[in-house]
Amino acid sequence: MHGRVKLKSTAQQEEEKRKEREKKLKAFVSTRDAVLKKRSAGEQDEEALHLTQLLLSSNPDIATLWNYRREVLLHLETLREKDEVQKLYECELHFIEVCLKVNPKSYGCWHHRTWVNTRLPRPDWTRELGLCDRCLGLDERNFHCWDYRRTVVKESGVSVEQDLEFTERLIGSNFSNYSSWHYRSTLLPRLRPPPPPDSAPDTSPAPSASPQVHSHRVCEEQLLKEYELAHNAFFTDPNDQSAWFYYRWLLGRAEREEMISCVYISREGERVSVAFSKPVHALAVGLMLVLDGQPQRVEWRCAHPRFRHSPVWLCDLPPGSISDMSNEHNLTVHWTEKHTHRDCALYTGCAESWCRDSATDQELFRSELSVEKSSVLQAELESCNQLLELEPQNKWCLLTIILLMRALDPLGHEKETLAHFQSLKEVDPMRSSYYSDLCSKFLIENTILKMEYAEVRVFSLSNKNLTTLCHLDQLLLVTHINLSSNQLVRLPPQFAMLQCLEVLEADDNAIESLEGLYHLPKLEEVSLKNNHICKLSDLESLASCIKLARLDLRGNPVHKTANIESEISQLLPLVTALSL
């Protein structure tokens, strides 16, 4: 037994640790109280720096202490020569590095370091850049360091090309470096901004010109190189999401120009509807209406009161302005904030008129692709299909194939896209609802394109398993819509943008809310058989549809309500054909 080290019991160890913690806590509290007392007394001296240094060395996340240090440093700065100030702040930078070793993701440390460099007479940005490289080498996703590095890059004059090389180096060492991929996406548009469109003198773009703009996007030559980089990454590690997200960004549509996309005018009700390419606040953007050369005093309103910003805005013209069918009128809507306008002529004998951009001409639901880029994307699609053969359960590959098909030919690849969505739901059931909503979005886009090619105002998407509705601003001119046999649970407020709608069929869904059936001036017939409408109050929005005459509610729980027929007759007195 002799010569053996006596081991302490667990109880003894815990007791010693407790006493040690109490001792440290007592010292910390004592020092903290001394610091707060000095600050309250307005003392700004070397001792204050020493005391705060003791505290921050063990816990660098106390913002009050960093604030006090800045107060002290500013005071000492007034008492010293320039060289002494340089040494003072260099010592402070060294101290911050010590604190960063305690917590590399301390908000206080990085903020204080930024501030110190703004006070340094001669900041060494090259040194700071090296510090960032070392920190990111230890933790490539330290977003505090990434934020600080952006400041350093700006101040040190690092070129975009050098920064891109830096991201490529990090990506090359680890394809899973999401931060580098993201940072790269912010650099590329600055490296090779797209050339400005050619502009001829004394000409203006036609109203049907594509509203896609390429600001904040990447020029085509560089884009093709980026495809290859991302391609190499996800072929190396198909299950890592970083490169797939970046690739999806590369495939993203260009931003749409803010413009007036449609003006609709109706003699009935003497109403004007204006659609924009993006949601706007008409009361704040300077919208002006001119009829036959005379500015009109009108009150603009959203299609539904739930929204302050909307892509569709309405107004009523003064009574008698356009009601006479024998008169011709010219109407112009000016958007003064964007220096643009849209004209619309209402001809003799016409009850309505409109001027709009076609979704097909606008390339609204796909990226604009040159022949060269299309061929490259086609090759990428073939490569992804090859990868899918090797990795049939890879959700990222499946989703990317869908996006490539959408970019190339949304209508031509529709059947394949639907099959891939079904596979996605099987391999990634946790996100099944997301895939259903995305599939619904694509189906609606395709149907809008088909409707415009056929030059009709009827929108039919029955029995398509729709779970959501979108792009309703594109249906402003639709008169008949069929949404039967889907999985819809509500008609959202955006549905009120369908100002020309006359007939709605939405049978065999799971609709509980009719909030979007609000002030639809031409709606005459609504069929809602076999839905989940439970209460009389669910029908209240229909009272605002002044032409509604036929309503079918068969197969809804609401029919069990006592005296339901008389209640509905009282709520909707203009309905002459009610089916329960």
From TrEMBL:
Composition skew (Basic and acidic residues), residue ranges: 14-23
UniProt GO MF annotations: Rab geranylgeranyltransferase activity; zinc ion binding
Any Pfam family matching the protein: PPTA
GO cellular component terms, A-Z: Rab-protein geranylgeranyltransferase complex
InterPro entries per the UniProt record, alphabetical: Leu-rich_rpt, LRR_dom_sf, Prenyl_trans_a, RabGGT_asu_insert-dom_sf, RabGGT_asu_insert-domain
Rab geranylgeranyltransferase alpha subunit insert-domain domain segment(s): 260-359
A GO biological-process term: prenylation
Catalytic activity field: geranylgeranyl diphosphate + L-cysteinyl-[protein] = S-geranylgeranyl-L-cysteinyl-[protein] + diphosphate
Group of enzyme by EC: transferase
Positions of the UniProt region annotated as Disordered: 1-23, 192-212
Bias-annotated ranges (Low complexity): 200-211
Family annotation (SUPFAM superfamilies): Outer arm dynein light chain 1, Protein prenylyltransferase, Rab geranylgeranyltransferase alpha-subunit, insert domain
E.C. numbers: 2.5.1.60
Record's keyword terms, sorted: Leucine-rich repeat, Phosphoprotein, Prenyltransferase, Repeat, Transferase
Similarity field: Belongs to the protein prenyltransferase subunit alpha family.
Function text: Catalyzes the transfer of a geranyl-geranyl moiety from geranyl-geranyl pyrophosphate to cysteines occuring in specific C-terminal amino acid sequences.
Designated name of the protein: Geranylgeranyl transferase type-2 subunit alpha
Organism: Phoxinus phoxinus (Eurasian minnow)
Lineage, uppermost ranks: Eukaryota, Metazoa, Chordata, Craniata, Vertebrata
